[in-house]
Structure formats: structure tokens, C-alpha cells
């Protein structure tokens, strides 16, 4: 099972990856976090106790895409490094932090402009069952293609 999340969804995906090892049979094999909001203060689904857990050895991929110009970058960089380190120690085949320069943060309030018609349209079309989209913003498309290519 692959989990993919962006922003607050990325924090949820991180929590899932870290809590999956508590299951009698872990299910997650791949985690892709797109500019996740990994600050554990306030409303985040990722608790500081989650970062104390080890990841399951079933996690073969842990890719975290952080946007350097993002409002969540400063709070997310440290926890992202921790999560990648845990995946590396658990012998994940691919564990990497990918930093995208000059990219800002996309929030759930941007769904029409970012997902339906913008740089992350490929995710929207995949969920809707449509074919590959070639008209989304090249930097976002290339970063996402890079993430997904590393798990294949």
C-alpha cells in the first residue's frame, strides 16, 4: 500500500507511516509526502511521540518533497530529516528528502487552481481516472514524476 499526502495530508501520511509498525501486520510499503506540514504543534495529525517510533521494515520507500519557499519549510525540515533517517535505518530501498528551490506551499484552499487546473493536476486526474496530464507546471510535474519513478 502506498500513502501519498500533501501539506496536512502529508503530515497524516507521515503519521500513518510511523504508526504502521504498531500493527501486527504492517501494510505500508511506500510513503510520498509532498511539502508536508510536519510541525507537531496545534492541529497536526503528527504527534511528537510519532517521531519517536521506528518505521516498519515493510516501508521500502520514503520520499519527502519539501519546497524551500514554503511557509512550512522551517518547521518541517527537522522532522523530515528524522523520518528519512528512520526509513534508512529500517533498510528502505529509497529514503530521500527532495528539496525544491523557489517553490511555495500549496494548501487545500487552492484545490481548483492547484489541483484541478494547476501544477498538481496529475494527482487530480489520477484520482478521477483520467490519463496523464502534460499541461501542468513543469517543475511540479518533474518533481512528482521523480518521486514516483523512484518507487518503481
Produce a short descriptive summary.
The chain is α/β, with parallel strands linked by helices and 152 residues long. 36% of the residues lie in helices and 16% in strands. Helix 2 links the parallel strand 3 and strand 4.
Written description of the protein model:
The protein is an alpha/beta fold and 152 residues long. The protein contains 5 helices and 4 strands. The chain has helices at 8-19, 73-89, 111-116, 121-128, 138-149, and strands spanning 2-6, 30-34, 61-67, 94-100. The chain has a 4-stranded parallel β-sheet with strand order 1-2-3-4, with helices on both faces. The radius of gyration is 15 Å and the shape is globular.
Characteristic terms for this protein:
single chain, 152 residues, four-stranded parallel beta sheet, globular
Amino acid at each position: 500500500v502506498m500513502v501519498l499526502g500533501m501539506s496536512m495530508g502529508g503530515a497524516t501520511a507521515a503519521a500513518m507511516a510511523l504508526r504502521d509498525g504498531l500493527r501486527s501486520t504492517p501494510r505500508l510499503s511506500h510513503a510520498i509526502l509532498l511539502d508536508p506540514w510536519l510541525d507537531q504543534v496545534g492541529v497536526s495529525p503528527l504527534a511528537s511521540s510519532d517521531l519517536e517510533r521506528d518505521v516498519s521494515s515493510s516501508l521500502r520507500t520514503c520520499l519527502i518533497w519539501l519546497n524551500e519557499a514554503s511557509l512550512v519549510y522551517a518547521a518541517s525540515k527537522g522532522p523530515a530529516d528524522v523520518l528519512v533517517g528512520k526509513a534508512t535505518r529500517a533498510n528502505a530501498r529509497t529514503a530521500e528528502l527532495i528539496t525544491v528551490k523557489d517553490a511555495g506551499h500549496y494548501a487545500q484552499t487552492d484545490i481548483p487552481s492547484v489541483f484541478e487546473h494547476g501544477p498538481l493536476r496529475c494527482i487530480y486526474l489520477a484520482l478521477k481516472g483520467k490519463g496523464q496530464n502534460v499541461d501542468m507546471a513543469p517543475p511540479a510535474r518533474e518533481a512528482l514524476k521523480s518521486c514516483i519513478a523512484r518507487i518503481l
